[in-house]
Design goal:
Blueprint: E1 5-8, H1 13-26, E2 31-37, H2 44-56, E3 61-64, H3 89-95, H4 108-122, E4 127-129, H5 134-137, H6 147-160, E5 166-168, H7 176-186, H8 208-219
Helix pairs in contact: 1-7, 7-8
Length: 231
């Protein structure tokens, strides 16, 4: 029987590159993308995820965990009145004296990975891919993207699943530019991805994730397809 992989899949650059990597390794028929709604302010990333799955001809799964974050005032959530910061993560961390940024959804990756482990066991997967990387972990902007978090969560899932499932974080030591380089090699359809924290027609270009994404494509000498056609 072929080994199967589950991929935490949001429709952004990192998770879409993870998806491409898993498809390359396991074959499209052995990959199960899992997209999670958590009460975000817009549906852009959900729509992007569906377009990408159509591109690959792969059926995904969706899970709604909105109610769990009802008590959080994270600026990414639809019920929050906080504005999404228009600054790089480095600038935000300096202003916040090193505490996680306001777009950090409390323990989101921990919750997503735990839920994915339960579903992956039922779907006979042997691993779960997620796209955590060095830039997001830097300075504790997103502590659930750090190497120490990944290693601890991997141990917990491996032991808690009866040593049947492991977590793969292939980009944990990489920055976003290196991820884009890998995605270009894999011919990932970045034109369908959505990264911006705002839900406008075009990416805002000034939120932390837009800044990181633009710089990553620039380093690779490639135009970000999110802005293609703009003057």
């Amino acid at each position: 029987m072929s080994e199967k992989a589950m991929v935490l899949f949001s429709g952004g650059v990192d998770s879409t590159t993870c998806l491409g990597l898993a498809i390359e390794k396991y074959g499209v028929q052995n990959v199960i993308p899992l997209s999670v709604q958590y009460g975000q302010k817009h549906e852009k990333e959900v729509e992007a995820a569906r377009r990408i799955l159509e591109y690959y001809g792969i059926e995904g799964m969706e899970l709604d965990l909105t109610s769990i974050f009802a008590y959080s005032d994270c600026s990414l959530l639809s019920h929050s009145e906080k504005e999404i910061p228009e600054a790089s993560y480095a600038e935000q961390l300096r202003e916040n004296e090193g505490v996680p940024v306001s777009t950090y959804v409390p323990f989101r990756n921990g919750l997503f990975l735990a839920c994915a482990a339960s579903i992956a066991l039922s779907r006979e997967c042997s691993c779960i891919y997620y796209g955590a990387h060095r830039d997001d972990a830097a300075g504790s902007a997103y502590p659930d993207c750090s190497e120490s978090f990944f290693e601890s969560m991997n141990r917990a899932v491996y032991e808690g699943s009866g040593q049947q499932i492991r977590i793969e974080a292939p980009f944990i030591k990489m920055n976003k530019a290196q991820i884009v380089a890998e995605g270009l090699r894999l011919k990932v359809p970045y034109e369908f991805t959505w990264s911006c924290y705002e839900g406008k027609e075009k990416p805002c270009g000034v939120c932390g994730t837009c800044i990181d994404r633009s710089e990553a494509f620039k380093v690779n000498g490639v135009e970000d397809p999110a802005y293609r056609g703009e003057s």
